[in-house]
Specification:
By secondary structure, the chain is α+β, with helices and mostly antiparallel strands. Helix content is 31%, strand content 24%. The chain has two domains: 24-120 and 167-215, no CATH class; 121-164, no CATH class. It is built from six helices and ten strands.
Length: 221
């Protein structure tokens, strides 16, 4: 029995190690879930339903000077650097303890919106899933003299065609395109702060996705 006198200690250390790895996995999943939730809050300008009330749909804006002051309240806030890029944009960077400059994101010298605006365009492409076309499937047709082709009277696509949606990302020339929630996502992804630390300063976003097409089509932002 002498060889088993340390078994209890070994089991206790093993349990602590397992708990540590479980906690790490749980924290990693929390970050992943938080980032996904934030991505779903992006404002999407869809080709079928353009954003009309941008001021409302872009969320609660912060003047860029106030945004910078709030960034300073994050952990190691004095390590953040705000560089002038041009008359319209600034760049947020982080100076690591080793002296490495980590580029985070550009943002406009404006009232920075809460949510980014992503432009989505649609293109008509062939639908090869239709193997057999019956005459009864054909809609009533009309001739469009402007486009010089036959089109359906009700405006629907002809059988054998479909709409394909493509994101073109944020407009790089629009100072209002990048929202501060997107910048906070980048800070969390770089492990410069946790979701809880970010939300302690900027508050929690309760906004649902204005347009769910991005999740249905697998768009990446």
């Amino acid at each position: 029995m002498a060889g088993r006198k340390h078994v209890g200690i070994v089991d206790e250390d093993k349990a602590k190690a397992l708990k540590f790895f479980d906690d790490c996995a749980r924290d990693k999943q929390k970050v992943t879930d938080w980032l996904e939730e934030q991505r779903r809050s992006l404002v999407v300008i869809d080709a079928d339903a353009p954003v009309d009330d941008k001021a409302r749909q872009r969320g609660k804006a912060l003047h860029f000077t106030l945004f910078e002051k709030m960034i300073r309240k994050l952990p190691n806030g004095d390590h953040y650097i705000f560089n002038d890029i041009n008359p319209l944009f600034k760049g947020l960077c982080y100076q690591s303890p080793s002296g490495k400059l980590i580029r985070i994101s550009a943002y406009g010298k404006v009232d920075v919106p809460e949510f980014s605006t992503v432009v989505v365009k649609k293109e008509m492409v062939r639908d090869f899933s239709l193997s057999l076309l019956k005459p009864i499937d054909m809609p009533e047709m009309k001739w469009n003299a402007e486009t010089r082709r036959h089109e359906s009277k009700d405006g629907s696509l002809l059988p054998g065609w479909k709409w394909e949606y493509k994101t073109e990302g944020e407009n790089p020339f629009d100072a209002h395109a990048r929202g501060y929630r997107t910048i906070l996502m980048k800070i969390v992804e770089l492990k410069l702060a946790t979701p809880n630390e970010v939300e302690k300063v900027f508050g929690r976003s309760s906004r649902q996705s204005w347009n769910s097409l991005h999740s249905k089509n697998g768009w990446k932002f």
